[in-house]
Amino acid sequence: SLSCCLSRMDSPLTPTQRRKLARTLLDKLRALPKADVVRLHNDDFLLTWDHSPAQLEAVHLVAQILETLYKAGVSCRVFQGGLAVSIFRDKSTRTRFSFASAASLLGLNVQELDETKSQVSHGETVRETANMISFCTEVLGIRDDMFIGEGHTYMQRVSQAVADGNREGVLPHRPTLVNLQCDIDHPTQSMADLLHLVKTFGGVEKLKGKKIAMTWAYSPSYGKPLSVPQGVIGLMTRYGMEVVLAHPPGYDLLPDVLDVAKKNAAEGGGSFKVVNSMAEAFQDADVVYPKSWAPICVMERRRDLLRAGAAGAKEMANLEKECLAQNAKFKNWECTEELMKTTHEGKALYLHCLPADITGVSCKEGEVVSTVFDRYRVPLYKEAENKVYVIAAMMLLQRFPDAAATIQKVIDRDAPLRLV
Prior knowledge:
By secondary structure, the chain is of the alpha/beta class. The protein contains 17 helices and 11 strands.
């Protein structure tokens, strides 16, 4: 069964067993509604709730196939060249290298656009930049999470620009976009999180009825985007989970995303509620996700001050002081051993997108105590590894109309990763 396969993903398997597992997963991919899955071809992946359950399952199945083949020593190259271009308008470690790893896995060369070294500062338009970087580009990956109300819109503008470029004969084909985090959603992260849950509990059907606590947690920094918690509540509510969002007063998420979560919960047979108590959220939870984020009003003020540049520097410093003082009122919002004991059988799965603010390690006081983090460190790193294969799966499904047929060719070719 698929559940059995999933439970074996992290188990020691021989290359032959991994090849067999890849074929089993490929059969599952073929069983999905083809007309639905094929709509991912030449489409962007910007928000998880824009895609059907079958399309999301296809991403996870392809991700697991690619991971299985790679760990069996099989080359997963499906391109003989071409670019995967990334644009990071915010700092990144995991997502930056996950995108590069995913592109390399499939045979694409990676080029990162550093806007400070481009003609963007000279007034080059979004339309022009998008076309100039896309002549031999298959996929564009964009992170734009700093400017609330603008990041997702920017990605849509880039998408329209390359579509126009292809239609007008400027570009030989239209590159597809992967959202590497915007102001609304962080789909590669939430899909990696979900895949971690699927592997841990033995199948997506095993998630129904499980309680997940997506909670705010104290951080000695400010201005963290809302897109991680928004991505989590927007995705996990689709799988019959009991999703509890907890935060102090004033740290609300975007109303539109809350509406998405409520709608998904109603349709998925689970539940969604918002509370102002971390303890209430942790009570009997099967999964906990303590993560800091900034109030919407702070992100809006910060956006305007960043746009103002040097003129807004003094006010930016004042804003930081105000926000840190506000955060400090809720230092007790910390994932402790005592809180973990209140979870289901005291053994809830701890999730984090990383890096976590670890009390006594990366900061004096933070999101999680070191003993909790250390206990889950290895699973967290494996959770992060999922992002490589999730992004690669999105790329493959976007660029090939029959992903199953393409993967079958990879399996039949059985080319080694390294020359022996």
